[in-house]
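S.,

Sequence below, as promised.
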Amino acid sequence: MDHHLPRPLIDAPDRDLLQVERDELADDRDFSVIVGCDAHRLAGTQAEAQRAARAFRVRKAELEKHYSGRPKLRVFYQVWDRPLLTVNGDHVISKVIALCGGENVFGALPLIAPEVDPEAVLRANPDVVLTSKPGAEPPKWLPRSRFFVVPADFIQRHTPRLLEGAELVCHALEAARAARS
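The prediction came back faster than expected:
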């Protein structure tokens, strides 16, 4: 529960409180939350939410079908550079990377958004570096053809736009595969 909300709002028995926190790209039980079906129930627009959920499922399945069998790439996702932050395998960004045929090099770390040092990134030896930091430049040791910026609005927020971010990530990994050939 978000304790930043005023206590009377949280405790009011006549109010619906919708709290959303997801770490999955989506399985069937999560679609209603991702596209806001619960919010739409509160607003009385459930039919629209159900159509959006179906469209989300179809689009995700298409991406999965196209990219899941592609050669695996080891991916480092940089949330920020100072401090150097990434995500672990429980984060939805890792689910997107996996959907596109990638593997998060820091997926096994216990914290959802751990701080890592540059040497750890070098030791992890990623094939691709992704970031959402606008204007970011690739590290000196990484060829530009293996460095991609994905806008945060498409990848760091668990909304229907997440699949737009997934498409960008999939295209980036595909470009990196082509550059390796």
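DSSP finds eight helices and six strands in the chain.

Coffee later?
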